[in-house]
Amino acid sequence: MSSVEIKDYNPVYQAGIDVMMREIQKEFKEAITGPQSTIIKQVYRLSGQKYWVALCGDKVAGTIGVVLSTSGYAEIKRMMVHPEFRGTEIGTAGKLLQTALDWIKTQGIKRIYLGTMEQFKAAQRFYEKNGFVKIAEKELPKDYKINPIDTLFYSRNLI
Question: For residue 3, which phi and psi values (nearest 5 degrees)?
């Protein structure tokens, strides 16, 4: 298998992202996206937002995004990894997260938040191994926009 390369999001990747999301959805009985989910190509140019795609050849292996809050924190968004590209040997999730963390640091941000779903057990373990701590919803910043399908929340300091 070829190595995974992280690239800035480009709308040409959207069809591959859609394929990846259908593959991930097959793993779960519950919907992993909701009506509020936005296609990345509709938001990637907004101020304070940055998205990346992991590619293995011409196949989308994963995605991650960052939304900067006007209150001075960052949110990790749309972190997804195709089932074929998971695991430490390939390192897709780690490369995506490190790319996002490196960019967040250049923005002077000191705290990151994210939301995830109960059924994403492997994601929860990944976040915890990477320094994120589970927090109660009431500990989120007041202006944090909660995705209605997220039930678990994490934070991490970058100091």
Answer: -80, 160
Asked if 54 and 60 touch (Cβ cutoff 8 Å), the reply is yes
- C-alpha closest to that of 98 among 126, 119, 118, 121: 126
What pTM did the predictor assign?
Answer: 0.90
* Domain 5-157 falls under CATH 3.40.190.10: no
Residue-wise pLDDT tens digits, 107-147? 999 999 999 989 889 999 999 999 999 999 999 999 998 88
**SS3 state at 119:** coil
How far apart CA 145 and CA 159 sit, in angstroms, is 24
Q: Which residues contact 113 (CB under 8 A, 6 or more apart)?
A: 73, 74, 75, 76, 140, 141, 144, 153, 154, 155
CB 81 within 8 A of CB 54: yes
> Tell me, what amino acid is at 147?
N
Q: Where are the domains of the chain?
A: 5-157
Rounded Cα gap, residues 120 and 152, in angstroms: 10
| Among the listed residues 113, 89, 83, the one whose alpha carbon sits nearest the alpha carbon of residue 100 | 113
